[in-house]
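Data availability (excerpt). The following record was deposited with the supplementary files.
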Amino acid sequence: IEDVVELLKEFSEIAPNPADESGEDRDLEIAIWSIQINRSTLRQAKRTSPASMIPGRAQRPADTVKADAARKLFSIATSHIVWGVVDTGIDANHQAFQLIEDGAEEPVKGRGKAKQADQKPASRVLATLNFTLLQELLSEGSVRRILDSHFPQNLFSEEERAEKLKDMQRAAFEIREGSVGGRQLDWSQLEKVIKFDSSGKAPPPSDNHGSHVAGILGGDFSFAGGGSGEAGPPTGVCPDIRLYDLRVFGRDDGELSGGDEFTVLAALDYVAWLNRDPMRPAIHGINLSLALPFEVNAYACGRTPVCDACDRLVWNGTVVVAAAGNFGFDRDQRDSAFGVGYRGMSITDPGNAREVITVGATHHSEPHTYGVSYFSSRGPTGDGRLKPDLVAPGEKIRSSVAGGAMDVMDGTSMAAPHVSGVCALLMGRYAELIGEPERIKRILMETATDLGRDRHFQGAGLVDALRALQSV
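Predicted structure:
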């Protein structure tokens, strides 16, 4: 903050006086309209202990939102639906994301129906895009150092690395000149640098958060050792959906590790570019299981840069689902207030955006009994709008993590992908809903199950996939 203040002082000293000696205003070309702090982005999940699970009870939170019944009753396929997971990264090699044909006993090898023994299983993660690279290129660091960091010699040939170096040099010039000149980024050039296909050359995720979120949305655990129990292993809401891995968190080994508003905005801008034909979107929806604390002194609630970017995506036909945040309870306040540490009005960005579907958390299997999770952020928004919009299972959720394993996590990060999956089910059944995110949001809110909790805690209620599909 001190550095920003000093910069503003220097700018004020060199800026011309807007009025001459007579007091009359002069016409000026204003170079800076406003300065916004690049806010840090926070993951909205925490690892919980598997020992806290109830022994012998199958953990199938997708069934709580009736996704199993909806798929069986309507025979829904979502293999033509693509969802973007804006997060820390997905382990594309996890068995939960492998392409599996109906009736098969093992994942399909290679692309399409090819099953050569020397090929890796085909992944439903169509591509990985590492947006943290843009932050590093913008910093004017060594392009060759960035190349060595993200494109190691053991994965890429010398020819590939030489071509990447040229692309990165062009991209560095593009992003630096574009940011200074106020031009839109040329994603046709930048995509060459940040995009990895599903060939297995993408670097491993920075942590388990993104893989866990993706597993809730679209994991197929029937071949992944997903657990035991009378009801079988847990299943993602849409176990055949295709995914885009949009990484906005880095390795957390320095200041340029991603996880900031700039990187999230870059990912949103890329999705808008990719979906420039709203009638034929490349990505039907995105999931944002992250939070940016709202800066009240900078912008009006719901009108921050990331909120505006999300609203524009919705207006252009892309579904945007966001976590409400995990700021419903303050442990420090609990210690000083005799055990009562609940917060009010704690929705975070981009959940504050008007058009997004903002999701709070509830119990994984008994939402009517336990209601809204203690940590789930609650409304209204700072400018008086009703939020969250819905709640979904977010406590003790078992899903995929990097390395082919599974783990249990809590958070509104786990609730949001349940709603993303229900949105995909609607589009998978009714093609007319593709490109109609506002209509999808209205359907989900009108058919949600009232848990009998306050509107600012539960929103319209628990998302109900079966009732939503039956209402159309």
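Summary of structural features: The first strand starts at residue 42 and ends at 43.
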